[in-house]
Design brief:
By secondary structure, the protein is α+β, with helices and mostly antiparallel strands. The chain contains 3 helices and 3 strands, in the order H-E-E-H-H-E. Strands 1-3-2 form a 3-stranded antiparallel beta sheet.
Length: 88
């Protein structure tokens, strides 16, 4: 698991993304991008994000599963991307 998390962290570093501010979508399939990763369950994702399940951010993550209709206890893909910046 630690090797997998290091791989993701390295990909974030190369892409210039901070895992504290990253945005993501949860899908049943990979988008085949350098920032699309398979997780075995929600606990792996929360561990990577360094988020407690009961925290506000943990509740947001759980809501993404409900929205997508994906079972958080089965494998899924997380497609990460840089936060969108609105220009005026």
């Amino acid at each position: 698991m630690k090797d997998k998390l290091n791989l993701i962290t390295d990909a974030f570093h190369v892409a210039g993304i901070d895992n504290k501010n990253v945005e993501f979508s949860i899908t049943e399939y990979s988008l085949n991008s350098k920032l699309s990763f398979k997780f075995n369950n929600i606990n792996e994702l929360l561990l990577f994000l360094d988020v407690l399940p009961t925290s506000q951010k943990g509740k947001v993550v759980n809501a993404k599963f409900v929205e997508s209709g994906i079972d958080p206890e089965k494998f899924f893909y997380v497609n990460f991307f840089k936060p969108k910046i609105t220009e005026l």
